[in-house]
Amino acid sequence: MTAAPASNFIAEIEQEILGSLLMVGSVTAALGIVKPEHFVEPLHRRIFENMLLAHDRYGSSSIAIVFKLFPEDEAAQWSKSLGRPLSAYLAALASNTVHGVAGFKNSIPNLLSQSARISLAVEAENIAAAANYPGVDPGALIRNATRAFDDIASGLRSGTRSRTRFSLSEAADVALDEVQHAMSNGGGITGITWGLSDINRLTGGIHRGEMVVLGARPSMGKTAVGLGVGVKAAQAGAGVGFISLEMGANRLAMRALTDIAYDWNVRIPYSDLITGNVSEKDFEKICDAKQRLNSLPLWIEQQSGLSISDLRVKVERMQDVAERAGSKIDLLIVDYLQLVAASSRYSGNRNNEVSEISAGLRQIAREKDLAMIALSQLSRGVEGREDKRPMLSDLRDSGSLEQDADTVAFLYREAYYLEKAKGKDEEEEFERSEKLADCQNKLEFIIAKQRNGAVKTVDLFVDIACSAVRNAARSF
User: Fold this and answer.
1) Is the Cβ–Cβ distance between 104 and 29 less than 8 Å?
2) Contact 112/158 with Cβ under 8 angstroms?
3) Domain end position, chosen among 135, 157, 179
4) Is 412 domain-assigned?
5) pLDDT tens-digit readout, 140-154
6) What pLDDT, on a 0 to 100 scale, did the predictor assign at position 309?
7) Is the peptide bond between 417 and the residue preceding it cis, with omega within 30 degrees of 0?
8) Are 216 and 374 in contact (CB under 8 A)?
9) Is 476 contained in some domain?
């Protein structure tokens, strides 16, 4: 055992925190933030461990109780190393504190920062040593390093998290500010706009710190809706990040261009842009739409196989880019949730993997104070029913999606299934054709769960070929 700290600066930070807690006889102010492993000095780590033990057993972390929790032989060894009785050292910690618990706003982040720096140095040494072996798998080394760095970053974030405790009066002040904002903009929106007035009225917009899960089967239009919402939110002034784990940024840009041109009564199918089957006149309109896109605070990250740790890094980089552009990320759209790479913690258990991903996305929304839309694939069980409208049980792989989401909405296009069907006879085929004509441009937005509002189905207008989603009242 040694009581010699790594440096006087490290020792002073640790002594200030321990002394402040011993002075008040309670460890409550540090619970959930400070952990024993954050202390570099071994003796300080042991003192804090005993403080936590004293709190659990006796509800107090007084000097007398903390000292008694040291076994006699251990206390004797520490006394010898210190050159004075351990009890005297504990008393000195309490009496020499400068700022007390009131100074934790600065001292705890300093403690976590020094712990993170030392942990990073140790991890860097381990990576350097492992990388020198010719047979090492670089991919595995990178994954392990990413997880280790994310663990370190997670510990660092815990000391800089935003305020979590409010009086009811303070919370009411914030609530009234939101209501006043909704009244002043005339649209009843307290969050970020969906770009769809009917959805805004039901939800109040997309709210910071909350996660919306938007689920659908393939070809229902979830990417078109997700991107369309992003474009409309950016047009309204919100900074938007779109993380695509499936489609390339250039393909998404083509969809956005046809969507914007649609507002000018220019209907250019997305597939025609891909094949170049566009007239000179329509190409000029697309160029005009490109000019409109240039000014939007919308950034796209295209990369498959991203983990939650990777996503967090991508979001932070997006925030840096947005800040340099005079904006910020207000809304994050992830396309789509099941393509996020799971950690090795629950390897082979898909239910637990998706639960981990869902919880990670929600945590990012809360930590970064942004609104989150996570697009989600639905299970194939939908296809086996006569009524193929999705329900909560269709959320793929995990019930945690329903639990973690503040809002769950589904997309359903009856026209998709009618286009695939064939009537058994001439009369049935006529009925199918009639029904298809009636719902060709109908998209059902099914709000299946909403913590702060009603569950309801809203009919929207959709032109899948042009990636355009509008209010149902829109007609041409």
Assistant:
1) yes
2) yes
3) 157
4) yes
5) 777 777 767 766 666
6) 79
7) no
8) no
9) no
Q: What is the largest CA-CA distance in the chain?
A: 100
Task: Please state the domain count of the chain.
Answer: 2
- CA-nearest of 190, 225, 187 to 208 is 190
366 contacts 320 by C-beta, under 8 angstroms: no
**Residue ranges making up the domain that contains 101:** 8-157
User: What is the per-residue burial (b if ≥16 Cβ within 10 Å, else e) of 35-70?
Assistant: beebbbbebbbbbbbbbbebbeeeeebbbebbbebb
Please indicate, yes or no, if residue 355 is contained in any of the structural domains: yes
Regions of the chain with pLDDT less than 70: 1-10, 105, 147, 150-189, 344, 346-348, 396-399, 473-476
Query: pLDDT digits over 62-113, tens only?
Result: 999 999 999 999 999 999 999 999 999 999 998 888 777 777 767 777 787 8
Assess contact for 257 and 286: CB atoms under 8 A: yes
**61 lies in the same domain as 200:** no
The dihedral built from the CA positions of residue 173, 175, 176 and 182, taken in this order, carries a sign that is: positive
User: 357-415: per-residue pLDDT in tens?
Assistant: 888 888 889 888 899 999 998 888 888 888 889 988 888 666 677 788 889 999 999 98
Nearest CA to 302 out of 227, 199, 377 is that of 227
Same domain, 153 and 264: no
Tokens of 368: 């970064």
Q: How many CB atoms lie within 10 A of CB 186?
A: 7
Which residues does residue 471 pair with via DSSP β-bridges, in sequence order?
A: 460
DSSP 3-state assignment of 129? helix
d(CA 9, CA 337): 44
